[in-house]
Amino acid sequence: MNLYERLKISRSIVISILMLTSIMALVYPILKKSQKETLQYKTEKFFNDIINEQYDEAFKFVDYKENSKQDLVEAKENKKIKWISRLRRQRANGVRIEACTKVKIDNTEYPVGTVRLIVNKKGILEEYIIGVTYVRINDGYKIRNISKIDDSIQEEICGRIVETY
């Protein structure tokens, strides 16, 4: 193989590497955005927003399921206010989520998730493995219900989201 052929091969390798790098640079932001749309990301964000007391943000992930004939916007706002006040009352009583870890989503039939929560009950840390069910709304999913957690915490945090307040 002469020098000219080696340079030709090297040049095509360099061009291929540059093209691959360019494609990856274009595809990475798209993949990153789609990751944010995953249920795992949304579930983690939901609990982390509760932990960080960003209740308005957390409520965006909740299916508030309105059954009444009230104006939909007004009903949503009323449920949001009641839900947030319950979370604040719970925190004032010394019960709060400290950490959310190990979020796993099973999409086999209909999406359900499990989450490991560390809950602080008046200074005592307890671990809970909870179940999360989702409901499809428009083109995405929201949290419908939470189960397998201490009844008082479940009711206060978000377990019976769809119940009338």
TrEMBL record:
Q: Which UniProt keywords apply?
A: Membrane, Transmembrane, Transmembrane helix
TM region positions: 12-31
Q: What is this protein called?
A: DUF4878 domain-containing protein
